[in-house]
């Protein structure tokens, strides 16, 4: 009998970490710096199925009756019931209904409704969920297949290759990075030409490296090409299948998958980004998305600046924020108005479009100010403003303590602020 399978993080080893970026919040907060569609498991499976990739037969249910009917329609030897949340560790999670485990197996379709009842509408706590847990609104009802052999397969964007790479290992593992570190000879990589696309020979070679030999290798090779076509079609930065497995009957199946999307492709992939379930986000993250948080380009409005700084200043352990604005693109006056409404203490440096107007706004705002000479001086002043409290090295640009601009900006109660607005 197949055991419940857990989703595995994406990057396989150090050389591939230049590919997909993870959603990292500001230190001490839950505000993510990226907008990114995160599909639920059933959505990833549907995307693959719709594009010819072989997955388990499944249905999605949001009521106990739907779950029961789905189990009967499957007519499978064994059925797996999975809570649909984005967090990992579902198998060992606990519901506030006292049910243990967000993944359950059964051979009796008539009990699926009973299993789903304490899952749907209840909160599930795992190692990856916030303290408030996550409410389960849907369950996946799927046929559970035995796996005779498990492998790992992924397609990633790799900046060092100026395109995508196919990555695989015949040794599937819950922590695939450890497999790559301990047995590097068991990891294989194929660079895919961005113009030519994946070649039949590459797909066949990867299938062989994964241990699919003889006539069987045609199946995984075909699935690999279909996965690559899906990768391009949806604007993905990563398609990871773990496990990419073989059944005792000789069928090659993508049992579990994780798909990451290019966060800049939302205008082109509206259907994909519409799948993003924001109900699992922290409220502050949804608020940040409303105002295009930390993406203050040339069309920025005063309200966006104001809301962005309100979100930053609401983070309890923010000590300093360094802002570097190219004034040739952004109207400094708009930015200054937004800052003065959101912050209490400020140290600005202003150069660029409408700089005099911006200076007047800040001068009349009642905010505490000093002016850095240039961006390097702005960094030093930002770090110096909190160095005593945070025990930072006095020379942030020295060898012992090098502070990047972004790091200072996320130093995370804005007591001091350095603003460098430069441009034409």
From TrEMBL:
E.C. no: 6.2.1.4
Catalytic activity: GTP + succinate + CoA = succinyl-CoA + GDP + phosphate
Domain of life, source organism: Eukaryota
Any GO BP annotation: tricarboxylic acid cycle
Keyword Nucleotide-binding among UniProt keywords: yes
Molecular function via GO: ATP binding; metal ion binding; succinate-CoA ligase (GDP-forming) activity
Cofactor names: Mg(2+)
Residue ranges constituting the ATP-citrate synthase/succinyl-CoA ligase C-terminal domain according to the UniProt record: 287-383
Region (Disordered) location: 1-30
Pathway, per record: Carbohydrate metabolism; tricarboxylic acid cycle; succinate from succinyl-CoA (ligase route): step 1/1
InterPro entries per the UniProt record, alphabetical: ATP-grasp_succ-CoA_synth-type (IPR013650), ATP_grasp_subdomain_1 (IPR013815), SUCC_ACL_C (IPR005811), Succ_CoA_ligase-like_bsu (IPR005809), Succinyl-CoA_synth-like (IPR016102)
Domain ATP-grasp fold succinyl-CoA synthetase-type: 40-244
EC class of the enzyme, as a word: ligase
Assigned GO CC terms: mitochondrion; succinate-CoA ligase complex
Keywords recorded for this protein, A-Z: Ligase, Magnesium, Metal-binding, Nucleotide-binding
Function: GTP-specific succinyl-CoA synthetase functions in the citric acid cycle (TCA), coupling the hydrolysis of succinyl-CoA to the synthesis of GTP and thus represents the only step of substrate-level phosphorylation in the TCA. The beta subunit provides nucleotide specificity of the enzyme and binds the substrate succinate, while the binding sites for coenzyme A and phosphate are found in the alpha subunit.
Name of the featured protein: succinate--CoA ligase (GDP-forming)
Lineage: Eukaryota, Metazoa, Chordata, Craniata, Vertebrata
